[in-house]
Amino acid sequence: LIKTWEPNLIHYPLIGIEDEEFATSKKLITKQEVRAVTLAKLRIQDDLVMWDIGAGSGSVSIEASNLMPNGKVYALERNAQCLGFLRDNLKKFVARNVMLVEAFAPEGLEELPEPDRVFIGGSGGMLEEIIEAVDRRLKSEGVIVLNAVTLDTLTKSVEFLEDHGYTVEVTCVNISRTRGLTEYKMFEAHNPVYIVAAWKESE
Amino acid sequence: LIKTWEPNLIHYPLIGIEDEEFATSKKLITKQEVRAVTLAKLRIQDDLVMWDIGAGSGSVSIEASNLMPNGKVYALERNAQCLGFLRDNLKKFVARNVMLVEAFAPEGLEELPEPDRVFIGGSGGMLEEIIEAVDRRLKSEGVIVLNAVTLDTLTKSVEFLEDHGYTVEVTCVNISRTRGLTEYKMFEAHNPVYIVAAWKESE
Amino acid sequence: LIKTWEPNLIHYPLIGIEDEEFATSKKLITKQEVRAVTLAKLRIQDDLVMWDIGAGSGSVSIEASNLMPNGKVYALERNAQCLGFLRDNLKKFVARNVMLVEAFAPEGLEELPEPDRVFIGGSGGMLEEIIEAVDRRLKSEGVIVLNAVTLDTLTKSVEFLEDHGYTVEVTCVNISRTRGLTEYKMFEAHNPVYIVAAWKESE
Amino acid sequence: LIKTWEPNLIHYPLIGIEDEEFATSKKLITKQEVRAVTLAKLRIQDDLVMWDIGAGSGSVSIEASNLMPNGKVYALERNAQCLGFLRDNLKKFVARNVMLVEAFAPEGLEELPEPDRVFIGGSGGMLEEIIEAVDRRLKSEGVIVLNAVTLDTLTKSVEFLEDHGYTVEVTCVNISRTRGLTEYKMFEAHNPVYIVAAWKESE
To answer: Part of which pathway (chains A, B, C, D) (predicted)?
Structure first.
């Protein structure tokens, strides 16, 4: 009798996984609440192809893949520390349909299947080149979502996306929360995140 | 040859459905971004039993059910106008595992299966009674989530939940967004929503 | 015995005047809370010269002049409706050191005394020209403050100001408030305002 | 020839003093933007009597006194570290009409002149007693303002003030700002502050 290892996923939700559950460095992770809004903006369906460019510790890829049992997520990352976190997290959350791609975007994008959805979590200073490369491959009715925490990224991403013919919506998410376990409840703010969503209007 | 009616769900995402897609009155709906964070706080898994108390137009029930193909959502509502919206929306989004329950909570709760998750979208002035009734039935490791838009509901829900032994976390969600189609992008704010999440610490 | 008319200012504070006290159209006014932060960013002192470009209904000019009994505020405006509001408000709040200048900026700026402070409340599509004209006249250690409610104005103002050698700080102000007189207190959000403050670092 | 020491106030604005200019510990200070809105809510006039209860490092007292050359501010504080900061700041900003009162409120309030305005920056666990003591002495048409950063203080202050017959307005201030001197502008959030303003409706 062979007892194969079986992951116990009973404690993890599909979305809303606690930030602390991910192997990560504190500044790297897309926080729980922003991740949820990001996934909403990505308009996930069951069987899509998604690219996660600058996947960081993989929290967006993992929750997206939980929503797409018949889909495929390609998580691009090249930072060595992030790759370590990513591998740990993909294993921990048994993210079978996330493919880890070691590449510094836009390198590596040409080889991937055409995406329905693209999430840009980090651009490593190559934002314009990445948007160009994505635009060449994105399927019609595709959606690009990008999270900006600086004014510069916000400004440039909107400019580049509009230059390539996209309709752009910006959502600013301000979250503050109390900590459940302290006796008195102080509201602590997260830094605001600008979620840029872009698509091409069909004619 | 018989062509049976087949819903075309191709355009609807699992979560992140546009507010405009729902039959509703403007003030009633839990907006897209807040809905996403609410679902994250509900810690949805594939096969849970959820109660949606004061289901309104049903947007939370519908997206929750999209995440729980093997679960069951009981949507309680008694307002006649809401019931109309709810029926239209359940049909439009083919929400097969949402059960509509015509009742004014806490009435009707006793007859339902024990819930893993409870979302309180509206309480009709019966907040304390509802929390008591929920507390009697909630499974261990269950989670209650409540959305408050007034200071009074925020204050009372935290008080009642703590009185019943729950650990409470409050998340304030402030969203502003630009409209995609206008030429110049003005940030428009939604009213803040306080998402109260409560659970009992296991000993 | 002659009793001359004497304004009763007893009910008006120096800053924090209620929005409803101003003759204005609803969309025009810089709201009470944002006005206060704007004045803080303007670093008002007792005896400065300030330009208020696109003065609208004059609320910023009036409160600034309350803080500068020995200073002078030049309020530029050309819109006929605004001019009516402005005149009414200057009279109502007895703003003796506010000079109304009927001009469409940058026209009219050359004739004014050099400013220590410039507030740009509206630019009428002439933002770059206004910033150029202001930059030619602003005293050393001067401060420019601009309120942006659209992404486009935010982006362009930062770009133009940095191009002219200014250090720029952006403050995003999100305000929500309950109404004092209703029985239950619902938080209502104002649209966010981006307060852009700019100055030249002394060498 | 005797050259007396003369403070150089040329660089300090009346309101909007940079947080870094105050002797303080980081968590103690009411931040610049929140201070401005707090002063607006206090409805300051030229010649009022104000109590600042739990004055901390004195930033609110100092800016309030800048707006009231003919008024008087009584700053109550008993924490030794705060008293050191307070003394340094009153000297630095030449706040001649701020009276430092070493007392742990509500102790010490009975001896003070009746206030037109009361700011409660800290209550040391004596919130109810302080509100009672203030209520006994506040002049008619007086205003109480309190800054809450925890849900508990927010809830209790509204409850106590309403119990004493006050009309209460709550303003939630969410501020994020970029740092002027960094190359790329990241928005950093301050924790939200709830400004509770209370007054009695005249009959």
So the answer is: Cofactor biosynthesis; adenosylcobalamin biosynthesis
Which residues face D72 on adjacent strands? D49
Query: C150, C155, C158, C162: best mutation site toward chain A, by most A Cβ within 10 Å?
Result: C155
* pLDDT per position as a tens digit, B90-105: 999 999 999 999 999 9
pLDDT at B180: 59
What is the torsional sign of CA D179, D184, D190, D192? positive
Chain position carrying tokens 């990001």? A38
- What is the model's pTM? 0.94
- The rounded distance, in Å, linking the Cα atoms of C77 and C80 is 8
pLDDT single digits (tens) C56-75: 999 999 999 999 999 999 99
- Please tell me which chains touch D, using 3 or more CB pairs under 8 Å as the contact test: A, B, C
Chain C contact set for D167 (CB, 8 A): 180-181
To test the contact with chain C by mutation, choose from A151, A152, A163 the residue with the greatest count of C C-beta atoms within 10 A, namely A151
Instruction: Find the helix or strand (DSSP H, E) in which B147 lies.
Output: strand B143-148
Q: Where on the phi/psi map is residue C191: left (φ > 0), alpha (ψ -120 to 50), or beta?
A: beta
Task: Provide mean pLDDT across the span C186-194.
Answer: 96
ipTM of the complex: 0.94
Q: Coil, helix or strand for C4? A: coil
Question: Is A55 in contact with A76 (CB distance < 8 Å)?
Answer: yes
- Candidate from B149, B184, B187 with C-beta closest to C192: B187
Q: Which chains touch B (3 or more CB pairs under 8 A)?
A: A, C, D
